[in-house]
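User: Show me a protein chain along with its predicted structure.
Assistant: Here is one chain, sequence first, then structure tokens.
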Amino acid sequence: MFQLALLLGAMFLLQGVLSVFQMRHFSREFVKLRRKGKVACGRKSGGFHAGAIVMFLIDEDGVIQEGKKLMGVTCFARVTDLPGFQGKFVGGLTQADLPKYGKNLRKAILDASNTYNKFMAGEVIPEPPSPFQRAGRTLAGVIRT
């Protein structure tokens, strides 16, 4: 039993270390885009499905110059190019612009568009709840019923 606990602990620690490397890679890619200009970001967590983060380099008018995505279930996912959006207005992206992508990637792209529109309207962009906040809300809902 002790060996199983030790193995699980080691796996948890390894996953944490690999996640740090993934976030460093993402941060470097974000900084590269940010040095070129404004960046619109969107995200959709995946849970047990592939989550997605998109970044669009935009010009002063909100026209997409370059797109990048980070999508996957594991900490081995890396930032890759997201072609097909160059020249499109980020605030005007709709479902019709995204037919060939997975569900969470489509939602992340629409989130980037929505976030851009809120920012341009001067609205506050809310932070998404943390996993602990979501778990607490779920638990509170179960206890109340």
